[in-house]
Amino acid sequence: MAKERIIVTLQGDEYDLIPSRAAARLAARFDATLDAVLLEPDPSDFMMWAGPSGAAASVMAGALSSIQSESDKSAENAKNTFIDALEYAELTAVRGRFLRISDQPADAAAETRLARLVVTSHYAASGNGPLAELVTAILIDEQTPIYVCKDKDVPPASVAIAWDGSREAARAIYAGSPLIGAAEEVRILQSERGLEYRDRRAASIDRLFDWLSVRGKRAEMINIDKLEGSVGERLLQGAEGVDLLVAGAYGHSRLREFVFGGVTRTLLAASDGPAMLLAH
Length: 280
Prior knowledge:
This protein has helices spanning 17-30, 54-88, 105-110, 122-125, 132-141, 167-175, 177-182, 197-200, 205-214, 231-238, 262-269; strands spanning 4-10, 32-40, 98-102, 117-121, 146-149, 158-162, 185-190, 220-223, 244-248, 251-254, 257-260, 275-279. It has 280 residues and is an alpha/beta fold. The radius of gyration is 21 Å and the shape is globular.
């Protein structure tokens, strides 16, 4: 019986393929069940007061029927992609549930509780498309780690860890520990610039070296203070050539709109960097 749970977010189009396949392969690596969550628009949200005329009611009913039909078609596409991904990774369909949730990002995000991580596309994680609000709610509200795919579906062979001793970084490392433990190469990226005195003990590189050594891992340490650019840019430079960057995500919520810190925004905006595992 699987010991973990992984979830993939779907939207019913071409952006589902890589995340679905990556999630299926990660589920095998984590010995996890794999569930899919499709967030779709609620047709009732498109209703407008159109007066008492029968003609207006008829037009509205036709529009809602068309919206529902398109929604059903997207759901079918998403479900087929999900089932194909399970077969692609040689997982049986009984190991995965397909959840269809209408227009409630908070409800869909709540489904991720007790999940080890959530797999999503870079398109959604960088704030685009119908899953953008859901992905942010998962990361910030539910504090469930997210694995952001790029253009590959294979588990990472090399990992870079952005280490500052924070709770967020530690949660990201724990979420990705099976991937770090199986990696052929591990890098630690660290910046002492801007650390306050009370943070330096938590950020000690020895703390992470000890955690890795228990898992039989040796790591190269890269001081990104020697590189050029913002912290986010320097992290991406330090992670150049690796398959996965593990990092804490920083931000705050405001009236259901989520604002990420500059480092997190830079990481999520990068289109040609590694896949990312982020935790808040």
